[in-house]
Design brief:
PH-like_dom_sf; alpha+beta; disordered N terminus; 20 strands; 26 helices; Prot-tyrosine_phosphatase-like; 13% strand; Myotubularin related protein 10; single chain; Myotubularin-like_Pase_dom
Length: 772
């Protein structure tokens, strides 16, 4: 536990008197070393005064910025207890910008790696990628010590090489595993990682894709480093044919199977064909093979994502604007100005664009029974988002916790999404940085927000998953492609630390695999025990979930929801008739212009629908909305701009002004969790009673199971007090904004209307459409 590696207060004075080299030697057994530290530091809590500020020691290690204090936070709120991080810790990979300030000289400087600092800082401001802003004051600290710790934070938060990321230290110390004939036997995760043929075979069988097979031509990454070693292709395409085709595709990324609809339609993704002379010929051969894999030999349609969706630079620009609006700039006194600024960032517009395009693909697969190819230049960014959303809308398996994790593993990790570059862990090229994964999680949250009972996991899970991107120990987010992930797992490292604490050298040895060789095992993020206790992991569980096998009570009998293949494949799912504006806003000014858009042909005015001949698309969505919602069937989100909301837990959790004490969605979550826990206990008592009666072994009253067996974080109480809303609950739960957002004070009540349900999108045309 990294937050416990530092010595107690009684030893602090001793450690402050010895050199960094000696401190390093004391801590190196855990993989984390102290690089530099400074005492008598004040962590700012209030915006305008020092009242309530904390005093302690600021420490920079090779993993995180840590603040050690024995002072208690004022107005302490509950916070997720991460096993890798303490209450005041920030991973270095999460630090976006390091700013030093000198009050006397009126200077401030953004520190980069290996830069000099010509003045002694009186203040340090850390701008974090998870939207926190943290301030430290050095009024009572030694000026040289303060300067050194600032330089150390700037240096270690911008590593020059992937192997300087802390994951190699962490893994090297704790996760060596033996290879069996050069093969990693794997861990104990109860979910597929799609790094073996057997896991792809199971997915083929699960989806009924009988005319598809596992291909191994990329074994050893001899074909493409960005493709997995094993992937799925049509049965009619031989390995020899694929080897001939691959040189014509960008980065040798030949078409990859994603998923099969029960009606036989397939979802496929592929890179662009780099040779224009071969374009028509290859298109015909690929489409012919996909057509043969369909039971009805249906057509194949191609969707060009590069033409139809915003690019990664646009998405990054929108994300930066949202961060500026939410956490860097103070909220304005004018409510409307803040909301219009949020609208002008275009972030929600882009979220809507991806949801909308995914819904169009859903229509093709479900409504027209045709296979769809998602084409992107390199098939590693936009296609990850769209393919995942399509499967999430169509397949309830991916709405379970294990299913969702396997979806991300399949469509992002193994498909070669550039997490290292898109997260900009090395800060080498800002043009490569783009929050594609955060955009995807926001899209998922929008669907959860509209269908809360359809998902096994909560928005807390999505937020924690996003935060895990900045903890550089997980293989999931550390690398750009499967080959890079595998290569670095085969590295044998020796480490030399200099006594200055500012340079860390690594030497790579031979990568030849021997029968007795050991490999580094980078834990995947899905091993949540690395970060949270079983109790805290219960925050991931949705008490409203109605999934396959989920229990319910009808007329006093305990029953289970079961999905059959028949009702999953053939029945159109719907939602309440009051939501008839879904996808029918063709004249909405905020809709992205897209070539061949299916949705753009739909009419916004229902009074005109009977006056024109319905298109198949219109009929499909009209039939769909006319039926009651089936949470185990197809789900399509509402897509009018006013139907999309700002993901407040993610974007505003650190903003004190946006926090609602004992309010927000968490209050409903608290009550529902207690109800679900009580139902679980009653069901367990019934089972014990029936078992005891049938066996005639005892007449005593069965007792409830231990509370730690419950899936719920909040347990059912026996008294009125225990069932009331806890004092620590707020709309930021389970995060605490106290001490994590320090900027100048805010006047007025800028969020009052928004927190009471005001819409982000306020254009006249939008309001007119909503009135329908």
């Amino acid at each position: 536990h990294f937050h416990s590696i530092f010595p107690p207060a009684s030893f602090m004075s001793y450690y402050s008197a010895i050199s960094p080299f000696h401190v390093t030697s004391c801590l190196s057994s855990s993989g984390e070393i102290v690089v530099n530290e400074v005492s008598f530091v004040r962590k700012c809590i209030g915006s305008d005064s020092s009242h309530g500020d904390l005093w302690g020691k600021l420490i920079c290690t090779n993993f995180k910025v840590s603040f050690i204090t024995h002072d208690a936070l004022p107005m302490q709120r509950f916070q997720v207890a991460n096993r890798l991080l303490g209450e005041h810790d920030v991973p270095l990979a999460c630090v976006e910008q390091v700013v030093t300030v000198n009050d006397a000289k009126g200077k401030q400087k953004v520190l980069c790696s290996n830069q000099k600092l010509k003045f002694n800082p009186t203040e340090l401001i850390l701008y974090c990628k998870d939207f926190r802003i943290i301030r430290f004051r050095f009024d009572e600290a030694g000026p040289q010590s303060a300067k050194k710790v600032c330089l150390a934070i700037a240096h270690y938060s911008q590593p020059a090489d992937p192997q300087l990321l802390f994951g190699f230290e962490y893994v090297g110390k704790q996760y060596y595993v033996s290879l069996v004939n050069g093969v990693d036997p794997g861990g104990g995760l109860q979910m597929p990682l799609f790094d073996r043929p057997s896991e792809w075979d199971r997915e083929i069988k699960r989806t009924g894709a009988a005319e598809w097979r596992v291909c191994s031509i990329n074994e050893g990454y001899v074909v493409s480093p960005s493709l997995p070693e094993y992937f799925v292709v049509p049965v009619s395409l031989a390995d020899q044919d694929l080897k001939q085709y691959l040189c014509f595709f960008t980065a040798h990324r030949i078409p990859l199977w994603c998923w099969n609809h029960p009606n036989g339609s397939a979802l496929v993704r592929m890179a662009s064909i780099s040779d224009p002379l071969q374009q028509r010929k290859l298109d015909q051969r690929i489409c012919s093979a996909i057509t043969k894999s369909h039971p009805q030999r249906s057509d194949v349609l191609k969707s060009d994502l590069d033409k139809n969706l915003p690019n990664i630079q646009d998405i990054q620009a929108a994300f930066v604007k949202v961060r500026q609006i939410c956490v860097i700039e103070p909220f304005e006194e004018s409510e409307e100005k803040w909301l219009s600024s949020m609208e002008s960032s275009r972030w929600l517009e882009y979220v809507r664009a991806f949801l909308k395009h995914s819904a169009e693909v859903v229509y093709l697969l479900e409504g027209k029974h045709v296979s769809v190819i998602l084409q992107e230049e390199e098939d590693r960014d936009l296609s990850c988002v769209v393919s995942s959303l399509v499967q999430l809308m169509l397949d309830p398996h991916f709405r379970s916790l294990t299913g969702f994790q396997s979806l991300v593993q399949k469509e992002w990790v193994m498909a070669g999404h550039r997490f290292l570059d898109r997260c900009n862990h090395l800060k080498k090229n800002d043009k490569e940085e783009s929050p594609l994964f955060q955009l995807f999680l926001d899209c998922v949250w929008q669907i959860i927000n509209q269908y809360p009972a359809a998902f096994e996991f909560t928005e807390t899970y999505l937020t924690v998953l996003s935060d895990s991107m900045w903890i550089p120990v997980f293989s999931t987010f550390l690398f750009n492609c499967p080959q890079q992930r595998t290569e670095n797992s085969m590295v044998r490292s020796s480490h030399t630390h200099t006594n200055c604490g500012c340079i860390q050298l690594r030497q790579r040895t031979s990568m030849i695999q021997l029968r007795t060789e050991k490999a580094l095992r980078f834990p995947p993020v899905w091993d949540w025990s690395q970060q949270f206790t079983p109790k805290d992991q219960a925050l991931f569980n949705n008490p409203m979930y109605v999934g396959k096998g989920a229990t319910c009570v009808q007329n006093g009998a305990v029953k289970s929801f079961r999905r059959t293949k028949k009702n999953y494949s053939s029945t159109l799912r719907g939602m309440p008739s009051s939501l008839r504006n879904i996808l029918m806003d063709g004249h909405d000014s905020l809709t992205l212009t897209r070539r061949n858009s299916l949705v753009s042909r739909l009419k916004p005015d229902f009074s005109q629908i009977r006056e024109v001949v319905e298109s198949p698309t219109e009929r499909f969505f009209r039939d769909w909305v006319s039926r009651p919602a089936d949470l185990q069937g197809m789900l399509i989100p509402q897509l009018l701009p006013s139907h999309l909301a700002l993901w407040r837990l993610y974007f505003l959790r650190w903003v004190p002004e946006a926090s609602i004490p004992k309010g927000g969605p968490v209050t409903a979550y608290h009550k529902l969790s207690q109800l679900a826990d009580e139902v679980e206990k009653l069901q367990s008592q019934l089972r014990q009673y029936k078992g005891a009666t049938s066996a005639s072994t005892t007449t005593s009253t069965p007792s409830a199971p231990p509370s730690d067996h419950s899936r719920m974080y909040f347990k059912a109480g026996s008294t009125h007090e225990s069932s009331s809303t806890p004092e620590y609950l707020s709309s930021s739960f389970p995060f605490s904004p106290v001490g994590n957002m320090c900027r100048r004070s805010i006047l007025g009540t800028p969020l009052s209307k928004f927190l009471n349900g005001a819409k982000i999108w306020l254009s006249t045309e939008t309001l007119a459409n909503e009135a329908l």
